[in-house]
Amino acid sequence: MFVAIDDTDSQDRMCTTYLIYKIISENRYDVIGEPALVRLNPNIGYKTRGNGALNIELGRGKGKKTVIGKVSGGYLYSYDEIAEEPDRNELMDYISSIVDEFYVRDNDKTNPGIVISQNKFHEDLYSIALQEDISLQFMENYLNGRAMYRKFKTGHGIIGSAASLAWPGLRYTYELLDYRYPHYTSIEHDEKMEISKVPEKYNSTFNNIDLQNKYPAIFPTPKTPVILGIRGVARNDLMDIYEEIKNYHNIDDEGYIIYKTNQGTDDHIIHEPDYLSDMGSYAITGVISGQPYTIEGGHSFATLNYKNRDIKLAAFEPTKEFRKILLALVPGDIVTAYGSYMSGTVKLEKLRIIKKAPFYEKENPVCPVCNIKTKSKGAMDFRCPSCHRRYKNPVYIEINRQINEGFYEVPVIARRHLSMPVKLSDYFYGSGNHSGAI
Asked: Quick one: residue 357, left, alpha or beta (phi over 0 = left, psi -120 to 50 = alpha)?
């Protein structure tokens, strides 16, 4: 029986993943397959931190056992097959008791929802949840006759819960989340930076530290039960990293769970659509049609002509050094822009420079008699300072631009959960997608 939970945390407290840890660690049911952490549309206004929902299959298992975590030093396992389904009503009451115990009550935006279903849903629902803002009424209509659900307060969480059960999992990564309830605050920033360097020794990891901006990305807000989260594509590497961190940095934790997740997959990106819809996320290829610029506040912009329509590209101040890439573009560059779309603007997550345009600077001509550069005396009037000969036309010199063709991405400090890091492009798609340098 599949169980999905969403919307139990707030911007600064709790984490819905911890409820899955409690369910698994209490061992009332066997876990079938891998617990899933599914990120949904990053552009909707109604969300807590990462707009992620959780699902897990529970029952009595059989077959091969796989390590999915630890609790109090002992391993937690899942089975690859289900032998017996649990009673749906008993399961709902049990899951509801966990949600009722741990969800954040004093917050208007925290409205948990539970969905229980014997089957997963069609992947079309997942696709919609990545691009649109689904209404509660739509989801209730969808679930009626398909699944059992329970709402707390408005129950808005049933939207994410149901959508997570429609994730097909064709592309996936893993995240190991380590816990201490209610929160763990004994690690100083410098030590967090040192701990965050540990995953960087493994090629299979991603988005764990931002050295340039001194951001230890594996550490969330200290008011959540999550001590740290390590992201990668190899489960065994994550377990090795955990053991190294725990042993050498004396982490006093309850235990951890490894989640299969859509993080870092670009599942939210639709490629080269004919129509761009607000709150959707796209990859669009076109020609830079205006000189990039920066406004007050440090936000940088350029204009892309896409299918005969001008689209504004934005690199906002939180993207830090990535803004230099946007500002280095010139009219005529052919690029692919990746990001979310709203009101004619793409908020950039990545940029691929496909073809650089030649760039010329105008200079005063050199007097061929004296071999001296002339001086401008007005429009179309250049004079040699030695022999005083006049020349009418400037010369144009091609400049060697200090930017390469290739992929560029926002730094880890500004990176969205769903956005595929450039280092994973070979993993998912094969070689040939390498970033340039500036």
From this structure: beta
